[in-house]
Specification:
This protein is an alpha+beta fold. It contains 14 helices and 21 strands. Strands 8, 9, 13, 14, 15, 16 and 17 form a seven-stranded mixed sheet that branches.
Length: 490
């Protein structure tokens, strides 16, 4: 445990003389000992490292002793983000009460700290019941790591920490648009503050922070596109307000309230496509930045069932250099795998003013019986509102991956079943004629036919053809009447 803590602390040795970071490290068992440094710099970090290395582990686990000074520590934090990293290798052993009561008491202490994020980790302990009570960051759960190797614990803590220290992508985009020195120089009034704040809040909830360097070797617009690719979002200009909006591509809509485009309001639908089974991807590798090693790292997720069905691994590699922890990289890999492993419909729609309020990133429902589609949620990827001479709206769209569980294919009314077992009836369309020599040979063989014709040159055979009177007819019987009104099988 000490080695892992030191590994994390060593990453802060380059902070310089001071910083905005405050650190308190607490060693706890039946009692408590701690070290605190405010506005810590490299020297202060080294002091904490030396203190940690001087600790000796003893028995006992009391969660309350581990967190009861946290409120006092964070009272001096001001507006700084507040994080608790709680590590345990045992079930609570309080002086009184049960383990559950001890964990709940510790959680109650942490709940008094406004805005604190608590990340819990278990060492060699698979039972996360009690640390799970303290943990309030469900995006990473409670990782269980091996005590003999400090690497996994250090990686888990650094991954969680860097996810918090990374910048909110919504703020990155805002800075790119408004900064007057290196950005695009737009006014704050040119941005739709409501959409940017909503996106920032959602990204914060998702712990989707980024650290991405812009070297000015690429256009600022390309840098913004890279950020948008990371977070799956679009920046658009609202046609009514003229302001920039930031829209995240998320499952944030009610299908019942969506506009439906159908044959009544669609002039034509073109370029309909759906990937074939062989075109689907069943494995996604994501490359991201590992702040611990200072280099690239990668991870791969797979759709095992699809790979088995395709009898091969079909992999694609995606670059997300702005993400700095494996937890977030794994979530993004799963996001992209879901899209790439699904045969999503795409098409171009020409419609009228009913779609005037749609914008890039918006969703609508599509009904198109010719392709057996009803209620399919589509997302706008491009839209053209007309050129002054024509008011037709051209929408390029693709099926929304978030709506897949609820999407249904249009099913036409099934035909009424008819019993094919019908009684025999006369064939009204029929033809009777003498059988040709060729047909006689096909039926009886040339040797037999020749012998019969030699013996009786005047012999002839009658053949009859008929059209089936109904679809249930599979064979026929031929009967003759010599004039007496009695039919006899031939």
């Amino acid at each position: 445990m000490k080695a892992a803590a030191v590994s994390v602390l060593e990453s802060f040795l380059g902070l310089g003389a001071s910083s905005d970071m405050d650190i308190r490290v607490v060693g706890y068992n039946a009692s408590r000992t701690s070290i605190t440094r405010y506005n810590v710099g490299g020297t202060g970090v080294q002091q904490i490292i030396d203190w940690v290395n001087g600790r000796t582990a003893t028995g006992g686990t009391d969660f309350v002793n581990g967190v009861d000074t946290a409120p006092e520590f964070f009272n001096n934090a001001g507006d700084k983000p507040r994080y608790v990293f709680f590590v345990s290798d045992g079930i609570p052993e309080p002086g009184s009460g049960t383990p559950t009561q001890n964990a709940e008491a510790a959680r109650a202490i942490l709940d008094t700290i406004p805005g604190v994020s608590t990340f819990c980790f278990n060492i060699d302990l698979s039972d996360i019941t009690y640390t799970g009570i303290l943990d309030n960051t469900p995006q990473d759960g409670v990782p269980v790591v091996a005590g003999g190797d400090p690497g996994p614990l250090a990686t888990a803590i650094m991954g969680a920490l860097h996810a918090q220290l990374d910048m909110n992508p919504a703020h990155i985009i805002r800075e790119c648009l408004t900064d007057t020195e290196w950005g695009m120089g737009y006014l704050e009034a040119d941005l739709d503050d409501v959409s940017f704040r909503a996106a920032a809040d959602r990204l914060h909830q998702e712990q989707m922070g980024m650290s991405l360097l812009w070297t000015k070797q690429t256009e600022i617009e390309e840098f913004i596109k890279e950020v948008l690719k990371h977070i799956n979002a679009v920046v658009r200009v609202n046609r009514r307000t003229g302001k920039f909006e930031l829209k995240l591509i998320r499952d944030d809509y009610d299908e019942e309230t969506l506009l439906e485009l159908n044959p009544d309001n669609i002039e034509r639908l073109t370029d309909f496509s759906r990937p074939s089974f062989g075109e689907l991807v069943n494995s996604v590798t994501v490359n991201y930045w590992d702040p611990i090693t200072g280099g690239d790292a990668s991870l791969t997720v797979q759709d095992i069932a699809l790979a088995e069905a395709q009898r091969a691994v079909v992999n694609t590699t995606l670059q997300y250099p702005g993400f700095t922890n494996n937890i977030l990289a794994a979530r993004v890999a799963e996001r992209d795998l879901r899209t790439l492993s699904t045969p999503l419909v795409s098409c171009v729609i020409y419609t009228d003013a009913i779609a005037k309020d749609l914008g890039v990133g918006d969703v609508f429902k599509l009904a198109w019986p010719d392709y057996l589609i009803a209620g399919m949620v589509m997302r706008v990827t491009q839209i053209a509102y007309g050129d002054g001479r024509s008011n037709k709206i051209k929408i390029t769209c693709t099926q929304d991956v978030f709506a897949l569980p609820e999407t249904v294919a249009f099913e036409p009314e099934p035909p009424v079943w008819e019993n094919p077992d019908v009684p025999p009836v006369p064939a009204t369309l029929r033809l009777a004629k003498e059988m040709t020599y060729y047909e006689m040979v096909q039926r009886g063989g040339q040797t037999a036919v020749n012998a019969e014709l030699t013996a009786n040159p005047e012999v002839g055979y009658l053949m009859v053809s008929a059209v089936r009177p109904n679809n249930g007819t599979i064979s026929a019987r031929l009967a003759s009447d010599g004039g007496a009104g009695t039919w006899e099988d031939v």
